[in-house]
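agent> step 3/5: call structure_predict on target 'Decarboxylating 6-phosphogluconate dehydrogenase' (Nocardioides panacisoli).
agent> reason: downstream docking stage needs a structural representation; sequence fetched in step 2, passing through unchanged.
tool.input:
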Amino acid sequence: MHIGLVGLGRMGGNMRTRMRDAGITVVGYDRNPDLADVDSLEAMVRALPSDGPKVVWVMVPAGEPTRSTIADLKELLGGGDLVVDGGNSKYTDDAENAASLAEKGVGFVDCGVSGGVWGLKNGYALMYGGSDEDAAKVMPAFEALKPGDTADGLVHCGAQPGAGHFAKMVHNGIEYAMMQAYAEGWELLDKVDFVENVPEIFASWRTGTVVRSWLLDLLVDQLRADEHLDKLKGYADDSGEGRWTVQAAIDNAVPMPAISAALFARFVSRQDDDVAMKAIAAMRAGFGGHATHGA
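tool.output (status=ok):
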């Protein structure tokens, strides 16, 4: 398979490597020439074989960067070709992008990608939306990117554009609530003066308990390196999916007290230095390489 990949940052660059390791020919474009294989979108599309559908995977920031990239690709691609949006786009954008591309006969698949900076080694969980016909054109890339040691990790969330990104949005909303629970528990354990070895308490939960998870593993790594997280400021960013999840809950009258509270707690951290948010910031840095704010 040949595929074009737009956006070679923390995740896109690792995805290029993982696909190449699986035998896929990847032509990557990034605005940073040090990362790119070619110097333009046009050159990337030209480098793809013309004897079959051209497939281009977009991994750029959500919103206008993704919309403008897809608009540019619309002018470069033709009937039977395919665009995959693998970024964190809001699910409502997908129907508009799919309809626009369809005007030229170009297919569209939206794909929520989870795995962060560890995806190169462990594989990525992929949640995609779109028709079976379009998905088949990119299936070799899906198979290369998903975890190789399990039948899970790749799911068709629905034929309607946006189904994949909606599933990824809910995934990230759940992530907010899980991180908040760990962070609040850490703050309480760290505060009382009669409990010792807090990092090892968390480490003991990694085996045999119902709260074990990869997020817990990442938090243990951070606490062992900086027991009281003194190097971090109690400030946590949000990248949008939590807000969209809460808005979707409102639109569908689904109660989400835990996820809503976790989102609002991040907003509080931007007004006052929040101790629990040090743990949130540490976990975000651990799984996604997200920037932290120094103390």
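agent> step 4/5: record observation. Residues 2-159 form a domain with the Rossmann fold fold (CATH 3.40.50.720).
agent> proceeding.
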